[in-house]
């Protein structure tokens, strides 16, 4: 049959569509709503999501998602990340912090009804180690062994006082080993379970994975087998939205929570939206290279001192907006070992000018490198860099700004070739030992040209802090270390940018957590 | 001798067994396009690998990037431990099997990532180009017809404004006004959060929702198309209006149009049957270019409206130094451009026999 005229083809096509509609009936694509159990919660987040597989995940969006899907051996209560509490297990450790015995408490059940055993714990932790993925470093040097069906023992060759805090990370969530193995899971690099874990979850958390699109949205629904309190929201949609749009969405009502508002965006949102503002665990700092072959200027101790005294920290806090605090030291305020606020660096222009004169600086240009394309808690780096440039100009230091995309600037930063660098450090885990990297010969120290042995006094303090001890002992040792770093180190802690969470009036119990941002299951519905 | 005279002595009419002139013309265009595709692969490969920065450092976390074993495994997994020439030929070889490599960001095959992202972009790009062509042709023709009058000046200013306003800013303003203030448009994304995605057939939510008879989903998806399509239309319509005006003005001065008018044909007939037909080839050219630029230029609009299309994918891939992802998007956009140009070239041949014969 030949259709000669275009109108005839159009009519046939229209008829075909109509027939299809009639044949299928007018179905609805809308989910159930109105009653509490299926109430949808919409969260706007700027995605950095790569996977939902706990063994491979180590980005903030992944932490948020996996916290809802998987339970961990230990955990934190609310926003307090300075103290570890029981998760699915309770902990006993030896004084040397080399042996950690974890005993499963109660009967935790996976979403398919299987009861969690020590085998699941051993498999999950060994899988993280064996995959050699992003979170593998968390368990570097840790040996995992099963003692009995309810007990697992973790041992380390050297004292590892940070291990309990590490075990609270959602990357170490406990998987249903039977299901994961059936879908390609192993404890080495031959593992192929990621695809399965990106389409289904295999955990005992309050939610199960309904769907995951790494670019656009993640949908969670409640886990009927969850051992704890039933979440207030039966369906959660986490969608990938830029900060500027997030603000409009949460004000307009198409989103219930916005997670990435800057300090200025979080201001004046109106009565229908409540904002929870806390300093984030990210610390923005300057590094001044101590390697004379990189810069004779910045490796001069008097020059470093002058820069520390020249910066107007209050001004930086004010431009960063709501929730932002000055960082007292490299360890953020919510972690064990943080310096009290009254020990933070302060501006003293007269002292700065005197120290600059002592350094012999003669007006040469010094380069300030920074990533031009990243925003941290809504704060962009070029704004801070420009402000520092003008502040240092006041004492006569000529700063040349050298912005570059983060993907390219990272090389110079990691290779220790930046003269002055503006960067940030987000904790890998909420324990002060994560900040020993800022000492001579360690990762960030080397990025600042601070080689092993460059400052023996600080290295001695670092060794003492690393050794462990009681909570009080660790607190005072890390404080002492940071006081010395502020006085003689090449780092200038600047800001803890505010973490602002805007929530619609129907949501309550919004609590910021430095590790997983938000415990979705703990949110309340008004 | 005019070009059309050569048709009298075309091979087929001389009794030869050569193909129809249009087929030869089409074949030549297709072969040229295929060669250009290879060129596009080479250019995207070279450009991508010229970018400073280590993709391994960008893809792995701070800690993982410091572990030589993890870095070595990553390099081997993505073939980055091979010389560039080997990498290129491996890439070409894989391309022949439809394999664009695996994204270092999503860990998915790039082809499947793009297959998922492309329909989202096509949905807004097709909507925008259709609207732009309708509006641009009408406004451009009116402007030309009223050359020098007040309405012509107004239309020129408006089209210039459409071209000059940054799409990012325009998108934000329109979103604020239509969604937040007037409540006419829905929030960002392709669907409201209380709707589930329709089963994938084409990947275009409007079409897929219709195919399964989910009318409410169809209407919701259509509502979400409104603002992104409007922004892209405002951007493209300025270009088209200006171009159509120029093309129509040229044709209006032609003798055959004057003759048609002198014969007393109605103005509408002159415009539709003579003027626009005469101006169709330059208009077609610019429509092709505009469609291509829509595909590659949706990055900022997609960012504002949380639209998970190839623009968002390109941005994500570039910012993570995801080389397979960047090359995949570059190749896709290049191929789409070539396809659109091929279609335009073939339409030239249909609309104007002189074109196919001259070639």
Automatic annotation (TrEMBL), chain A:
It comes from the Bacteria. Its main location: other. Pfam families: SBP_bac_5. Keywords: Signal, Transport. Signal peptide: none annotated. One of its GO terms (biological process) is peptide transport. GO terms for cellular component: ATP-binding cassette (ABC) transporter complex; cell envelope; periplasmic space. It is found in: Cell envelope. The keyword Kinase does not apply. InterPro entries: Peptide/Ni-bd, SBP_5, SBP_5_dom. GO terms for molecular function: peptide transmembrane transporter activity. CDD domains: PBP2_NikA_DppA_OppA_like_7. Transmembrane segments: none annotated. PANTHER family: PERIPLASMIC BINDING COMPONENT OF ABC TRANSPORTER, PERIPLASMIC OLIGOPEPTIDE-BINDING PROTEIN-RELATED. Belongs to the bacterial solute-binding protein 5 family. This is ABC transporter substrate-binding protein. It comes from Cnuibacter physcomitrellae.
UniProtKB/TrEMBL annotation, chain B:
The chain crosses the membrane at residues 30-51, 124-145, 157-178, 221-240, 283-307, 327-351. It is found in: Cell membrane. CDD domains: TM_PBP2. InterPro entries: BPD_transp_1_N, MetI-like, MetI-like_sf. PROSITE patterns: ABC_TM1 (PS50928). Gene3D superfamilies: MetI-like. It is a multi-pass membrane protein. One of its GO terms (molecular function) is dipeptide transmembrane transporter activity. Keywords: Cell membrane, Membrane, Transmembrane, Transmembrane helix, Transport. The keyword Transport applies. Its main location: membrane. It holds the Pfam family BPD_transp_1. Coiled coil: none annotated. GO terms for cellular component: plasma membrane. Belongs to the binding-protein-dependent transport system permease family. This is Peptide ABC transporter permease. The lineage of its organism: Bacteria, Bacillati, Actinomycetota, Actinomycetes, Micrococcales.
